[in-house]
Amino acid sequence: MNNSLAIYENFAQTRDIANALASSDLVPPHFQKKPSNVLIALEFAHRNDIAPFAAMQSMFVIHGRVGMNASMAISLARKHNVWKSLTYKTTGSGASLSVTAIAKLHDDSEASATVTMQMANDAGWSKNAIYKSIPEQMLKYRAATFLIRAHFPEVLFGMSTVEELNDVHAAKNVTPAKVAPLTIDVEPAMETQPAPIEPEPQPEPQNVAPDSSFNDLKCEVLDFINTRPDAWFKTVGKLRGNIVSVIESTMTYDEMVKMQRIVETLEKNYQALTQEQYANPKQ
Predict the structure, then answer these.
(1) pLDDT tens-digit profile of 220-242?
(2) Which whole-number Å values give the CA distances from 156 to 94, 161, 184, 219, in the listed order?
(3) What mean pLDDT, rounded, does the chain reach?
(4) Strand, helix or coil at 223?
(5) What is the rounded CA–CA span in Å between residue 114 and residue 150?
(6) By Cβ atoms counted within 10 A, which residue in 85, 107, 257, 272 is the most buried?
(7) What is the pLDDT of residues 99-131, one digit of tens each?
(8) Element (H, E) at 163
(9) Closest CA to 136 of 102, 88, 86
(10) Which residue has the higher pLDDT, 154 or 6?
(11) How far, CA to CA in Å, does 125 sit from each of 164, 212, 216?
């Protein structure tokens, strides 16, 4: 049986493999002690002919849905040889930033997809804090995903990327508009001017989330942390569990905002180091 269901031909052996991987502390937290989750990763790995460990490093549960990193989607497109090469064209900056993913196909034709910061703003994706720290990289991920989904759907099989799931959640995470209280005009019983009523002093708001609730902000930061590769944590000199425990123990909104800024700074440093390594590879 040459398809993804082949892993179930010898289910007992597959189950033993899933249990062994689930008992390891080297796999991401959402696979640890969860052999049923590992079984799904094994099916994904078998279908795409990649190592199970590589599959688990790229798969994450975002707000109840499973997604793969955009980088994995691009890697799978290359692995399945759907194009000769993939390049990006970047124009503008800030609100006018635009990225086009261009695939050169085997017949020398081209397929492309363009994503702009204006699109990100209009769709609400930019509410995801990562768009403030590495906007060009995020637009590259989205443009490549658009390209793959439109021209090579067999790569994704309908599966969403982590970046798409986080952006959709960020777009939905909008504080509802305040509704004015209902007022009814009633004629006074007597033709006398009512005495003015002094408004009661209102306490100054403290620790109020401007755009999202504390829990939403914490979930956003944790979701981002859980999508970082192991190299990210090695670069910042922290273990995944340590930094996650710090975030989970944060009790106030202001402290959570500070943690978010720290994580954004760590991501900037990681991206800078990664780009330097690509520009100056070791001989």
Answers:
(1) 777 777 777 767 776 666 566 66
(2) 30, 9, 56, 26
(3) 78
(4) helix
(5) 12
(6) 257
(7) 999 999 999 999 999 999 999 999 999 998 889
(8) helix 162-172
(9) 88
(10) 154
(11) 9, 14, 15
CA distance 277 to 254: 35
pLDDT higher than threshold 70 for residue 208: no
List strand residue ranges (DSSP E) for 49-198, in order: 59-62, 65-68, 85-91, 98-104, 110-116, 160-161
- Find where tokens 């492309």 sit: 112
Q: How far apart are CA 189 and CA 204, in angstroms?
A: 37
Q: Locate 117 and state its tokens.
A: 């910061």
3-state helix, strand, coil in the chain (%, to 5): 55, 10, 35
- Please give the single-letter amino acid code of residue 9: E
Find, among 114, 106, 104, the residue nearest to 145 by Cα: 114
Both structure tokens of 132: 């403030």
d(CA 129, CA 227): 14
State the residue for tokens 């937290």: 29
Please give the structure tokens belonging to residue 144: 């490549």
Handedness of CA 36, 41, 45, 50 (dihedral sign): negative
Residue with tokens 């009633």: 186
DSSP state of 175: P
